[in-house]
Amino acid sequence: MPLVHPLNRVFTPRCPRCRQCLGSGTVNFLRAHINRACWHTCVVMGLSRFLLIVAACCALAPLAATRFRPPVTIREIEKSFVAGVITLAIGALAASQTYDFGVFAYTHLLYLLAVVTVPALLGGWYVTAFIRRRRTRLVNLGGALAIIIALLGVWGTHIEPNWLATEIVAVTAPVDQPLRIGVLADMQTPNIGRHEQNAVDTLIAEEPDLVLVPGDFFQGSVDAIAAETPAFIELLTLLTANVNVVAVVSGDSDRPDELKKIVEAAGALYLDNQITDLTVEGQPIRLAGVSVFAATSRLDTIASLVEPSDAFTILLSHRPGVVYDLPVGSDVDLIVAGHTHGGQISLPFFGPPVTFSKVPRTLAAGGLGLVDNYPVYVSTGVGLERLQAPQVRLGVRPSIGIIDVFPASVG
Fold first, then answer.
1. How many CB atoms lie within 10 A of CB 278?
2. Which of 24, 169, 391, 399 is 20 to 30 A from 157 via CA?
3. What is the pTM (predicted TM-score) of this model?
4. Residue 295: C-alpha distances to residues 161, 259, 274, 291 (Å)
């Protein structure tokens, strides 16, 4: 019977070359032999499982240290704490030596410690005390906390990320008649599933006159996206078949050349640091689209918006911070962006602790606001940060956006 490398129990790579390396028994096989084209497809799923195992062990070790009984003395508390810390240190070291461990990976580990380790540890002590009929108020409190935290983890990981919302906002602008703009931001997915299909169907049902896609259309390895390209084209074609104009810019997770092929094959408009003049439902529109990458063409496009126009001027950008790049006196009536995902986690009475954006946190959380007197709409997006990051939304539902634009005289 052939020997099975221990890491095969953690994950099974899809790439034949990686499977061969894994079976060779090389301890540092990932760094030595990994096929970079399949890095995200083969390795990151393994990282998620690995971190889950580490989180589970970080609960099991303290439980074993106290023989699965709730600690009642300082010495027992110290034993359980030390056992947990040592297990965490070993697990984190093993993960960092085996995988390309970045900031998002550490965030992922912290999230699993919160929603897996803590409830498993508290729940384990509660169950033991319940069986032995030695429950105390503190143990009962721990059991209740275990249930609450576990439910929050299930909600944030499996329910809220798929609970799509439709956000409708209104803005006045120099238009001759009402205009409805749909926003499909940050799908950020390696494949098209029911969630993405539902987002497009919901957007079409709102009957927008124009749909703007502010980047992060996909996220995944070259091979993974190539395999899913027909599905991406089909989804975008569904939009172009039902909406007069669909315009797309690239984001952080997109590869512009691949995105351009998808967009053009679907009959949509790809804007790469360009300004185009459109007429939608009889309304003249000057639409500017910029990428996230530093380029002379990007600076030129933004600088050109200083020129006054009688048309309704929209600036489409992945990152909302583009508002700070506008020269003083720019003729821009609306900025549409995504990028922040609303922070993905939002705390009650505070909002998202992290947004990775320069705009005010209240705006980065999603919605419509004014920055330097420019109306800026930030979508919370359809998807979420993938790869090494924790797949979580908590207090921030995914959404498609609807911006109803009314003539300024109507209010």
1. 17
2. 169
3. 0.86
4. 34, 18, 12, 9
Please provide the distance, in angstroms rounded to a whole number, between the alpha carbons at the two ends of the chain.
Answer: 77
Report the DSSP pairing between strands 283-290 and 312-317: parallel
How confident is the model over 132-159, as pLDDT tens digits?
Answer: 888 889 999 999 999 999 999 999 999 9
217 to each of 236, 241, 262, 366, 403, how far by Cα in Å? 10, 18, 10, 18, 20
3-class SS of residue 218: strand
Output the pLDDT for position 27.
41
pLDDT digits (tens, 9 = 90+) for 189-210: 999 999 999 999 999 999 999 9
Q: What is the mean pLDDT of residues 160-186?
A: 97
User: Helix or strand or coil: residue 342?
Assistant: helix
Among residues 274, 279, 268, 215, which one has the least CA distance to residue 239?
268
AA letter at 386: R
Domains and CATH numbers, the chain: 6-160 (no CATH), 164-407 (3.60.21.10)
